[in-house]
Amino acid sequence: MSSLAKILTRVTAVMLKELRELARRPGAIASLMLGPLIVVALFGLGYSGQARPLETVVVVPAGAALPQDAETYRKLGGAAIRVVAVTQDTNSAHELLRRGEARLVVALPEDFKARLEHGEQAPLIVEWNEMDPVRSGIANATAVGLVQELNRQLLKTALVTLGIESVSIGSPGVQITAEVVASPLKLEARNIAPSSPTFVAFFAPAVLALVLQHLAITLTALSMIRERTSGAMDLFRVSPVHGLELLVGKYLAYGVLTLVIAAVLVTVLTVPLNIPLVGDRLALSRLVLLLTFASLGLGLLISLVADSERQAVQLAMLVLLASMFFSGFILPIEEFREPVRYVAYALPVTYGVALFQDLMLRGGGGVPAWYEVALLAIGVVLFALTAIRLRATMRATA
Amino acid sequence: MTVTQSVTDPIRVKDVFRSFGDVVAIDGVTMTVPQGALLGLIGPSGSGKTTLVRMLTGTLLPTSGEIRVLGEDPRAFRRATRERIGYVPQDFVLYPDLTASENVAFIASLFGIGWWRRRKRVRQVLELLGLWDVRDRLARDLSGGMRRRLEVACGLVHEPGVLFIDEPTAGVDPMLSREIWDEFRRLSETRTLLVTTQSVEEAELCDHVAVLHRGRVIALDTPEALRHGIWGGEVVEITTERPIDGEALRAVPGITRIRQPGPRKIILVADDAGAATPLLIEAVRAQNSGVASIDPYQPSFSEVFAAIVERAEKERAERQRVEGEAAAAGTAV
Are B98 and A240 an interchain contact pair (Cβ–Cβ within 8 Å)? Predict the structure, then answer.
């Protein structure tokens, strides 16, 4: 038998052994296959991505001579707020805010008209009760938008009340209507991105990248622990098997499995969940392959440095946590300070998230070209580190 | 099986030491195992058997000394040499989620055996070890004895020229132990085997026995030679018709040792039992008794082992005493 044939025999044996062992644990396979599918399906079906309108109580003092019906303020507030009550009592409005039954209190001043008639600005008091900085920001933005809209409406109403339907400014004969005076600029917003994904569609490729990385790491993180702790490594040391043959066998076994799961996940995302795939499937396959290669390396490295199964699981979970925070999955990488950004750039999923979103939603070309190279480089470095570590592990104990 | 080493001997060990920190596990072992021998490496737990086997297989480096297996230093075995070595570790290290035949086939593949030959060999070794009927059973569902046999099957599947087997009968019932040893005897007709065991009775089943104690080989010979050597001659057991004074038989020429376990029972060591027998009968009659029976005494190997260890301990104590005195003398000077 030639040397090459022997190498192929050994590599294939390791690959088949790993796959057989996995196949003998149907529970583990089911959770591996179904787990990510359920996560993706729940995310796709359960996340609306739409911010809920803020439940708002409008306080209109008795002497304010302003409308007391909710419908008037609902029209003024637009889609950002939902007026749940109009009251004259500030205290009862605050109580609703404190109990969480209202998220915004808009209090109009009693001397609203009098102030305007005296040429003074009237304060519009908007209050909210949010600890969450994101929700607080939304409330603030809503308040700003609300006051602008009210100002515009008041200006227009004032002009019409004064009998000024239109004014003449600039070129003779050009009449500008009260509407234009109140709102000289009209917003025409356009997103020039090739597709306008929903929140779900935007996050789905990132979820795919995260699930694939986690899957590959979880699969491989435990793969060498048992062999190292049971004494099987002594068998390998005595046998003619080379560390690289073991490593390639394991990469192939878990690579094949991860790619099969990736194919199922992509199908679930693109067919029943209607996530767009603007780029071509071949390019997506290439990215999946790169991400899988790098992630398997990370998992195998964990399995070679951890001293027990427990530690391997802990390290895999640590990588998952780091991936959630630093990969751009939730928070943009640019918002982190520079040293922390390096953590993001060390994680395969960081490139996976950006590349998958770019290819699936934009069709590619929207992220730097070096991202793919970096992902490949991480994979190669991890492969080399794993090979070096395995070689050291297989060396005779001094 | 001596310290005289030949380059053709598949296992050669010379002045090998191995320590773990301050603990000396192997203390100057020198031995050879010739082609086609079944060597039993016998010693109590912690005597250094596994350490020695691990050094011989290249998984543990010696602190000093020289080891050659199939003519090569285990630290730098070539692949071709590794293909000729088999190793059955002490603990079960196979894969519980693979069947018996899958485990054997996997190990065969690691040794580069192609599909066609592998299929044949897997069947051969499983049949040889009585595991063919359970070939499709998962290893985790096999009994302890079956697992040990499965490990031996894995060690044999690639037809190694030298096979190291570490405590194959630990935790195995006596019937099965016997079968396993019978198998080793058959295997030793075509290959060299080094088998470690804590069971001294298994020493009798080996061609040669090395007794390992405190990291030293304190005896190395055939079981018969060890038995003969430890008593310093042939052992005879006499049962007399009436109680006699056994010490009086010491006067018979050629009698070197006497032990009297009972008033009518005497065990003697003679240089030549055949020549001493008539003289012994005479000496018994001289004490107004008669000889009810006189038989060659076959001491159990437990007794032989105990005597070997006792002798080694005495020698060690003597050595320490001499060293202590020398040190004291040096201090005094």
Answer: no
Whether B184 and B269 map to the same domain: the answer is no
State which of B212, B227, B242 marks the end of a domain: B227
Backbone angles phi, psi at B181, to 5 degrees: -65, -35
The C-alpha atoms of residue A237 and residue B82 are separated, in whole angstroms, by: 9
Same domain? For A86 and A142 the reply is yes
Claim to verify: residue A219 and residue A310 sit in the same structural domain: yes
Q: Do A59 and A93 meet the contact criterion of CB atoms below 8 Å apart?
A: yes
- Chain B residue with CA closest to A21: the answer is B97
Residues from chain A contacting residue B110 (CB–CB below 8 Å): 10, 13, 235-236, 239-241
Tell if the CB–CB gap between A239 and B107 is shorter than 8 Å: yes
Question: Kind and range of the H or E element at A326?
Answer: helix A309-326
Q: Which domain holds residue A139?
A: 54-182
CB contact at 8 A, A197 and A356: no
ipTM: 0.80
Name every residue in A having a CB less than 8 A away from some CB of B.
1, 5-6, 9-10, 12-13, 16-17, 20-21, 24-25, 230-232, 234-241, 396-398
Residue B120 lies in a domain: yes
Residue-wise pLDDT tens digits, A328-372: 887 888 888 888 888 899 999 999 999 999 999 888 888 898 999
Residue A188 placed within a domain: no
Task: Report the amino acid identity of residue B126.
Answer: L
Here the tokens at position A337 are: 């300070």
A275-301 pLDDT, tens digit per residue, is: 889 898 999 999 999 999 999 999 999
The whole-angstrom separation of Cα A53 and Cα A367 is: 34
Q: Which residue from A12, A25, A240 is facing B111, i.e. has the nearest CB?
A: A240
The overall pTM is greater than 0.90 = no
Residue B315 lies in a domain: no
What parts of chain B have a pLDDT lower than 50? 1-3
Residue B91 sits at the chain A interface (C-beta within 8 Å):
yes
Which CATH number goes with the domain that contains B291? 3.30.70.100
Q: Which residues of chain B make contact with A10, given a CB cutoff of 8 A?
A: 109-110, 112
